[in-house]
Amino acid sequence: MSGVSWREALDEEMEPMLAEEIDVFEGQVELRKQGKVDERVFAETRLRRGVYGQRYDNGQRHDGVASRELRFPAGDLTKGPETFWDAPGMQRIKIPYGGVTPDQLEVLAECAEEYSDDILHITTRQDVQLHFIHIEDTPDMMRRLASVGITTREACGNGVRNVTGCPIAGVCRTEVFDVTAYADALFRFLLGHPDCQDFGRKFKPAFSGCAGEPCGLVMMHDFGAIAEIRDVDGVPTHGFQIYVGGGLGTTPHQAKQLYEWVPASELLPVAQAVGRVFGREGEKKNRNRARIKFLVAKLGIEEFRRLIDEERAILPYDPRWTSYLPNVGDFDEEPARDAAPLVAPENAPEGFGAWLDSNVYRQRQDGYVAATIALPLGDLTADQARALAEVSRRYVGGAIRTTVEQNIILRWVSEGDLPELYRELAEIGLAEPGAGTIFDITSCPGTDTCKLGISSSRGLAGELRRRVAASSFSSDTAVEGLKIKVSGCFNSCGQHHVSDIGFFGNTRKIDGYTVPHFQVVLGGRWRENAGSYGMAVGAVPSKRVPEVVEAITSRFAAERQSDETFQDFTTRLGKKELGALIEPFKSIPTHDEDPTPYTDWGDAREFTKDDMGIGECAGEVVSSTTLELSSAESLSFDAQIAFDDGDLVRADERAYRAMLSAAEALVRAETILPPEDPDAVVKEFKERFYDTERFFDRFAKGKFARPLFERHEQGPGRLDADSIRILLEETALFIDACYAFEIRETGAQSAAV
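Given the sequence above, the corresponding structure tokens read:
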């Protein structure tokens, strides 16, 4: 194209609005480099374009699956960069409902190869992330993505995040109808919408085609829609059950039903009304309580519904609310190849049978299947992505979806093509069996790249994959179908709350050393759109987690009753018995006997939490405090058992006492307290640790202490299951924060000496 630059050529291929937005962002990057834009202002700007800072450990990925040397080494990054400009960061890229075309996949591969570390990472919300990117490269990268219809806008920041949706929508055997067109309409309608720019925190929507399957995991989202057809004046009409206020994070909330059903014509205006109410009524100053789940919990679903009804009634008409409806059929997919029956090959490729059993889903359309490409830890290389784009063109056209389990699905595969498809996938290293089984472990980035990471979630997930593959217990049919999910901290990016067996990273002090641990969470429900959350039963050292998995799964295989589910099994055993089951794995040898447990997975260095400002060393006072905190943890566990027994009064009282005991442990290290005087404990704790901000860390600030103050001042709250469950979660987090404070303080004292 003579006389036209590559940038101008890309601009011609983009929507004008996207081109202008990227130009503006590029200007902001340059102004920030010149020091003419405040860093705090620019931080929100880049976050709204999907650009994050990230954590560093010498640029290493600890899983051994997709390690690459960095193209842009930036000196010694072991302590992390001082500012965003000192080292590469991370780019999150929106993939609405997981739909990606071969052309888009190729551009993503090019960006990973040229701007990143050659790895595409699929997230638990169907996005793509590229790590180790440089801020100066992001505008050009965004132009290349926008030229094929991909945006990074509001992939992060306080706005509407990616709209997730069922990856087999349109081909699912149990769906009510295909939700793809509606998910796409909501994505486009809310992208940059003025009513969605003043949120206190992020807002995550999801769509599901049926209530019984995991699909879009609606029950753990800020805004969720489940497909349902109802008769309206004798006409079958597409519509949705609408849910609001779900969320995981530090205190998980189950979504509440806002409307039993609304017609599809009301989907977008209802979402707009929710955005307006959230933007106006939601918390702004205290970011720790700024998600919509806290607003719904504060107001109650009835009052929240009243506000939405009022807001909907005054919304000015927008033709976009319904303009997409006549074109819903445009999202119907056509197969690239004719249907043909599967004929078992005489010389079947090695591994084909196992892959066929676990990775292939029979579509509702005769003769076609959906094939899952299982990605260990959600990673694939640029070369694999490029090759996969070509494979998909031959076999399925453009029918590709990413999944919330960090995999990729090829839809509309003719059954007769399965042997050849498997051969081609095997040639590029993408024919792993075990999709959707215990072998298919989900993990957030953890300490590899996340600044909030406490323990190595990817390292643990990689090790568990190896252990499970070599085990005998995983071949049991009931065990094989279990879900394992790992988060590097309490924020649940790995979705540990809704797995059968979940883990989230924390720490404990043992033998005077800070030791990486994982809290064990059992009995979450993946089906029914994340139908219920598991409960923490205790923390174990990171290096002993594989033993815990084997003990739990072996017990389940040996003792389950008939067709008993894992959720029913854990309920039957109860928290006390489950706590006893993991108790033997809480101990480790002394550091002198064996230093291995004092390191994290995939990292030979002695474990520290320096990146989060927490020291390592301990003194005599620490040992005494640790003992008292352990007692508080026992009270918290007792509260969980009471909750499991249905004794909400005892659960509330024990949770309060647990928080009080943890606070007292810290106070007693510094002063003498009168006996059995809760008022004195809370007063001293508040004055010494909260008001002085000593209890605050870099990220959570003081939020974990607030439930103690509220419960002490107000007395027992609403004694309903939801309220007590939240109190139990907050109690565990407060105790963990006390442990972290103890470690942080003793580290500072040692440094001073």
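The chain has four domains: 6-102+112-146, 171-331, 437-574+589-605, 613-753. Try to locate this feature in the token string yourself.
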